[in-house]
Amino acid sequence: MPRFFMAGANFAGGAALITGADADHIRVLRLQIGDSVILSDGEGTDYECRLTHLGKGAVEAEVLGSRRSPSEPSVSAVVLAGMPKGERSDYTVQKCTEAGASEICFFLSSRCVCRPAPETFPKKCERWQRIAEEAAKQSGRGIIPKVRILSDFGQALDLAAKQELGLFFYETGADRVGLSRALSGIHPATAAIITGPEGGFDPAEAELARRVGLTVCAMGPRILRCETAPVVALTALMLTTGNLD
Amino acid sequence: MPRFFMAGANFAGGAALITGADADHIRVLRLQIGDSVILSDGEGTDYECRLTHLGKGAVEAEVLGSRRSPSEPSVSAVVLAGMPKGERSDYTVQKCTEAGASEICFFLSSRCVCRPAPETFPKKCERWQRIAEEAAKQSGRGIIPKVRILSDFGQALDLAAKQELGLFFYETGADRVGLSRALSGIHPATAAIITGPEGGFDPAEAELARRVGLTVCAMGPRILRCETAPVVALTALMLTTGNLD
């Protein structure tokens, strides 16, 4: 059954109203009145609908039933990444959306090379949100992960500490926990993954992470680029929680 | 201790001779005669050396000892990917090198949109090999994964079937094995990961894969882009074999 991802569609009163590009898309696919489609609301609910009206720029459908989107992972995972340079942030947003993140936040920490002016934040977030929406559509997600910039590193720690599992990836130090051990035998409902910018974290930041109760983790002996690390960590979490089966 | 990745350095007779850009790099770092460095030969061996001569364009060192590179994973994993369009292949090479692939091969299968002319293969491979070398250096690998184009899909299957574990990722079908189950409790010395091009595989290709003994796998309900799937699969393999600790 064709599935359409349509944030902002109106599902009130047992009917769905689809307008704009989504409506055009349905027309292009030559769907007919009476055809069944699945409409995702972008917030985790899929609506099974039957098309009732195909107008120019507006399509209407009858809602037959709804369910939690089956493509959404069982763990709600927020990715917190040190602000990377240039296109790396786009990549982080796209790949983490595909890999199942519920939210993607960038933060500034002491070793960030990229320090955009706060007045550029809204435009950056808008761009990332578009990338997240596109990736969510392509990968069949049930939600569009929110993308935002946190005010500082402390806010990232606070947000991570609120999750059932909080993993802080640090590239040095003997007392780090191996990733497979950090994930072994647990099935958290909420999780956070914190990774650093190009230069990694400094020791004081790692110490702070430890103090707020995060698990300071290693990710193997190979050094991952700052845009690769969040995807690898998220994949590991999705695998061990049964969300890659 | 500073580590230099120098494919082609000469380690004959207990001495190492470093020339070209690598020699310049050592000079730029202001290392002195008597300083210890680790030189990787790009084929899995690390040499602990003491600098004995710092000349213009040539550096010499005494070899104190050698060992298998500790950053190399315990599993030798070949990534076989359906030829993707444009820059996606660059991405596959870079990320799979970081994630620990031993070799990266592209192949043409029935749904490949990108079908480069064979006369362009050498130039493409040269470019990918440069990307692999750069990524291997940055991530501290002990080898540079070889990158090549296979003659056809059959060759990809043959190569995969020769490995101890062969995973074929297929996007549809009820009889696929979940990725966590496919990897559960095994520690292969060699493995292959086959993923499709943009359009995926056709049913006959999946059937062939099954017939040569590959495990036909799912990778969760989200649809990964063709350049994301190999990295996710490789990460899962590295995690379950203890190579992300």
Description:
- The structure is a homodimer of 245-residue chains.
- With 245 residues, chain A is an alpha/beta fold.
- Chain A contains 7 helices and 12 strands.
- Chain A has helices at 20-28, 88-99, 121-139, 153-161, 179-183, 203-211, 229-240, and strands at 3-5, 15-19, 36-40, 45-55, 58-68, 76-82, 103-107, 146-149, 165-169, 177-178, 190-195, 215-218.
- In chain A, a hairpin with a 4-residue loop joins strand 3 (36-40) and strand 4.
- The longest helix of chain A is centred in the middle third of the chain and has 19 residues, at 121-139.
- The model of chain A has no long low-confidence stretch (mean pLDDT 94).
Mean pLDDT rating of chain A: 94
Q: In percent, how much strand structure appears in the residues of chain A?
A: 25-35%
Order of helices and strands of chain A: EEHEEEEHEHEHEEHEHEH
| Oligomer description | homodimer
Helical fraction of chain A equals: 25-40%
Radius of gyration of chain A: 20 Å
Distance between the termini of chain A: 21 Å
The number of strands of chain A is 12
- Helix count of chain A equals 7
What is the topology, as strand order, of the major beta sheet of chain A?
A: 8-7-6-11-9-12-10
SS-based structural class of chain A? alpha/beta
What is the global morphology of chain A?
elongated
Q: Any low-confidence stretches of chain A, pLDDT <50, length ≥5?
A: none
- Major sheet of chain A: size, sense and barrel closure? 7 strands, parallel
| Most residues in contact, chain pair and counts | A-B, 36 and 36 residues
